[in-house]
Amino acid sequence: MQITGSQSIAAPRHQVWAALNDPAILKGCLPGCESVERVSPELFRVVVVSAIGPLRAKFNGDLRLTQAQPPESCVMVFEGQGGAVGFGKGQATVELLDVGSATELRYSAQAQVGGKLAQIGSRLIDSVARKMSDDFFEAFRKLVVPTPSPSITAEADTATPASAKRSSGVPVWVYAAAAVTAVVLGGVLLR
């Protein structure tokens, strides 16, 4: 399967890169994540518990960063085992681009699943993966781009004309790409 997409994050690229490589931030943002351990500068070990329809499994996986060009891009090779439920493996390319004061995260992933996961209906898997990704980025934004206090927001509202304000809604993201590290592993394993 091929998965592509992009995500806009209202923070500088170096800050987004650092957050995506911080095991504590990744663990705190990925639903069902029991642990994210940085084994070396290029290798993460991830444990995610998830349920898809009648299947519930603990996925143990490795995610290796290759061809890293901080804070611009990297390629991630991932593999995870969910015991009798199945496995997932693949590769994702992630690119971070400056867009004004924000960062655009672009990704492209190829993945394959096996075992019982491959037998489950794709609609159910897509829905679980989409929800997991949305939840990840909502939590990620809260940690990386803290919401201003109400008094600061009120002052900014009176100083900014309504026509100049922009919505910062959470765009639908891609079922994978570890925001990249953990989401690729968690989301793609469920896809």
Q: Rg to the nearest angstrom?
A: 17 Å
Q: Based on helices, strands and strand pairing, what is the structural class? A: alpha+beta
Share in β-strands: 35-45%
CATH class division = Alpha Beta
Pfam families: COXG
Transmembrane segments: 172-190
Protein name: Carbon monoxide dehydrogenase
Keywords: Membrane, Transmembrane, Transmembrane helix
What is this structure, in a nutshell?
By secondary structure, the protein is an alpha+beta fold. The protein is built from five helices and seven strands; from the N terminus they run E-H-H-E-E-E-E-E-E-H-H-H.
Report on this model:
With 191 residues, the protein is of the alpha+beta class. The protein has one domain (2-148, 169-190): Alpha-D-Glucose-1,6-Bisphosphate, Chain A, domain 4, CATH 3.30.530.20. It is built from five helices and seven strands. The protein has helices spanning 13-20, 23-29, 122-144, 150-159, 181-190; strands at 2-9, 33-38, 43-52, 55-69, 73-81, 87-99, 102-114. The protein starts with a strand and ends with a helix. Residues 151-191 have low confidence and may be disordered.
